[in-house]
Amino acid sequence: MPHAAGWVNRLNAARLTYVSCDPSTLARDLRMLLDLGFKIEGAHLFDLFPQTYHIESVFHLAR
User: What predicted TM-score, i.e. pTM, was given to this entire model?
Assistant: First the structure.
């Protein structure tokens, strides 16, 4: 995400929807996005693979 974080920052988007299937990279990437001034507006979690650690996460962010 470091590459993408720079691109997102240069894009100067007011809103962003972030989709992740890995909780550890989600936490890392959300930290970077929050540091860029985004705030979490909403989140949805989807258990598409029952009895596994995989969970689909969709976060709506805005600055």
Answer: 0.83
